[in-house]
Q: What sequence folds into this?
């Protein structure tokens, strides 16, 4: 009989504490009045033509329509390439420390993840990660996003747009707590060769080479990346990651262009805990490849057609001997596949009225004898129809209405609407209010997981036996917001106040089989819908450029998470703060400082984080020349304020590392 599988990790999580005296509804008016008053005073001052915030970023993530960040139906954080270079991050998850309400952790150092304001699982399944429009999450195991975030190298990234809040109205299932949209660099912007090397403490040994060729009609980039490190202290979580990526861009005529991408990744990573017989220290191997293509046709100045398709395959090899029972092998191994096809049409119906709509289909399958107790693959198909209408009711009023209708072959039909109204209260000052619904559909394991322990054809135990009755999680979100562009101060302020209610939270629950088994008796685990948490809070994002050489980011998030009755399954920090300072000294020496602080919390599947966590990172970079070749040398110290205990669980209390590393980048 096939090897058996171990049940997924789970930890007990306490109920969350409310934020004493926090009333988000009272915070927003005060902030808005302050910003409006400050803006009115600033408008009386002379504004330089070189004002840093003269042109605000244009984003696509929220409604699928190109909109200035001041007019989007939601709060967005944009991280540009210059900021990515200033911070010298090794993983995309680390970059999300810059986003208000996002927390970065992981059950070990080889699987860093980021979640938005409610750490309800260790896989990040309630965030949707898009890389050039391609969904980057696991089809095989719970829909996790950790390895998807690792599948792109920060040096290849042009910008990151993060919608803070639900967006199933535009993207459907899994866009429940936010959308992380990663846009890589156009191949025409990376012509020539590049090479970089990074070495330092904690076993850091990274290397990258890239070659770009082409012209304005056809260009391409081929890059190879290696990342090595020893992980966290006191854990067996070293990481050995190798990647190969290709991107090509072809302009077929004045109105049409093709984009094609392909990638391979191989990860060998430490996992498990010393002393845990059910999840011992070991090395697992994960391999994936993807193909991603987009065709865009500009039909007119106001009308565009886009066709996109992606294919992804991932495989995991992870097995070990279960020592308490000789002859038993625990196995997580399996294969996941996903195909996604979508057609999108954008048009202007009349002045002040724009529409984007489209249709698509996604098929996912997972094949794992250990996890599903069957040799063939399980699959589901999800078809979708979506649309978003932007209607400028009056010069100062804009209405955004979105609707996503989907059909999941296992769980049936669902609809996720959004309505958001924006009001320009004064020049450069926008208020927004709205409501939307989002869903998360169950993973294949939550629908059909069947974990058995067999020996010589005899079933000795069974731990998971999903009945397939679980339905999608649902989230109802109410939001108030403010965006101010304080031009004379060279600053912007973005405030979001939210209240969210989740119903149908998917949790594990035991039930009894008709007949007992020798080692596990009659108890097995299923996934069921339970009452979900209530989350409320306020967050703001302040960006300030006091002089052209300096940028300051200040983010804070205040939140309260409560569970009905005794069903507590996690807690969130009541306060989290991020302060980033970027400065360019004479001779182009650049400084980046990043400080994050968050209060105690519990992270489902990771462990308890009972102490306040503080992290200070220092980054310095300086341009050089090697003959005709431009170069840049950089020096980074992470956890400059000292190592800290990241979480506590039954088998581990890992610490972060104070580590320094240096890097050299050369344009060839």
A:
């Amino acid at each position: 009989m096939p090897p058996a599988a171990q049940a997924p990790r789970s930890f007990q999580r306490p109920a969350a504490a409310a934020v004493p005296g926090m009333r988000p509804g009272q915070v927003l008016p005060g902030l808005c009045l302050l910003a409006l008053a400050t803006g009115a005073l600033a408008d009386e001052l002379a504004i330089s033509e070189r004002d840093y915030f003269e042109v605000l970023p244009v984003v696509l993530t929220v409604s699928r329509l190109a909109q200035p960040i001041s007019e989007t139906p939601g709060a967005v954080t944009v991280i540009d390439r210059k900021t990515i270079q200033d911070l010298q991050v090794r993983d995309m998850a680390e970059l999300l420390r810059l986003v208000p309400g996002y927390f970065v952790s992981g059950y070990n150092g080889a699987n860093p993840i980021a979640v938005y304001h409610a750490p309800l699982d260790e896989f990040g399944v309630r965030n949707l990660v898009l890389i050039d429009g391609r969904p980057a999450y696991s089809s095989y195991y719970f829909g996790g996003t950790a390895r998807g975030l690792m599948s792109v190298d920060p040096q290849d990234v042009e910008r990151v747009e993060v919608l803070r809040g639900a967006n199933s109205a535009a993207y459907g299932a899994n866009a429940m707590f936010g959308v992380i949209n990663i846009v890589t660099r156009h191949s025409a912007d990376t012509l020539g060769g590049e090479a970089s090397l990074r070495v330092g403490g904690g076993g850091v040994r990274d290397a990258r080479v890239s070659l770009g060729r082409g012209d304005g009609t056809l260009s391409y980039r081929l890059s190879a990346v290696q990342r090595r490190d020893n992980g966290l202290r006191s854990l067996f979580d070293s990481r050995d990651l190798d990647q190969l990526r290709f991107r090509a861009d072809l302009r077929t005529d004045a109105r049409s262009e093709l984009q094609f991408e392909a990638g391979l990744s191989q990860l060998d990573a430490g996992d498990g805990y010393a002393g845990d017989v059910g999840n011992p220290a070991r090395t697992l191997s994960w391999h994936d490849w993807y193909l991603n293509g987009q065709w865009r046709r500009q039909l007119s100045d106001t009308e565009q057609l886009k066709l996109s398709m992606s294919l992804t395959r991932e495989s995991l090899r992870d097995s070990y001997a279960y020592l308490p029972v000789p002859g038993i092998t625990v196995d997580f191994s399996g294969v996941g596949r996903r195909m996604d096809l979508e057609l999108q049409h954008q048009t202007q119906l009349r002045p002040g009225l724009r529409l984007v709509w489209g249709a698509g289909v996604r098929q996912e399958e997972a094949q794992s004898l250990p996890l599903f107790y069957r040799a063939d693959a399980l699959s589901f198909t999800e078809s979708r129809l979506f649309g978003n209408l932007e209607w400028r009711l009056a010069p100062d009023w804009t209405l955004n209405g979105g609707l996503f209708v989907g059909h999941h072959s296992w769980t049936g039909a669902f609809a996720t609407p959004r309505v958001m109204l924006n009001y320009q209260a004064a020049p450069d000052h926008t208020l927004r209010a709205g409501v939307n619904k989002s869903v998360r559909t169950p993973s294949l394991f939550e629908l059909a997981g069947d974990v058995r322990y067999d020996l010589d054809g005899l079933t000795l135990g069974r731990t998971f036996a999903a009945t397939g009755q679980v339905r999608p999680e649902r989230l109802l979100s109410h939001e108030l917001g403010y965006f101010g562009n304080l031009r004379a101060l060279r600053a912007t302020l973005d405030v979001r106040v939210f209240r969210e209610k989740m119903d149908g939270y998917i949790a594990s629950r035991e039930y009894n089989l008709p007949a007992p088994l020798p080692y596990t008796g009659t108890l097995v685990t299923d996934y069921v819908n339970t009452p979900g948490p209530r989350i409320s809070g306020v967050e703001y994002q302040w960006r300030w450029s006091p002089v052209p050489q300096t940028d300051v980011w200040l983010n804070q998030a205040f939140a309260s998470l409560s569970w009905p009755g005794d069903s507590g399954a996690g807690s969130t920090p009541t306060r989290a703060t991020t302060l980033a300072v970027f400065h360019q000294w004479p001779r182009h020496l650049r400084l980046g400082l990043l400080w994050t602080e968050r209060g105690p919390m519990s992270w489902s599947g990771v462990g308890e984080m009972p102490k306040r966590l503080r992290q200070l990172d220092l980054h310095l970079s300086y341009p050089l020349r090697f003959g005709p070749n431009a170069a840049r040398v950089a020096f980074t110290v992470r956890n400059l304020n000292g190592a800290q205990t990241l979480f506590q669980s039954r088998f581990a209390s890992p610490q972060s590392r104070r580590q320094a590393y240096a890097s050299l980048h050369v344009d060839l």
Notes: The first strand starts at residue 58 and ends at 59. Confidence is low (pLDDT under 50) at residues 1-53. Residues 24-667 form a domain with the Maltoporin; Chain A fold (CATH 2.40.170.20). The chain has seven helices and 39 strands.
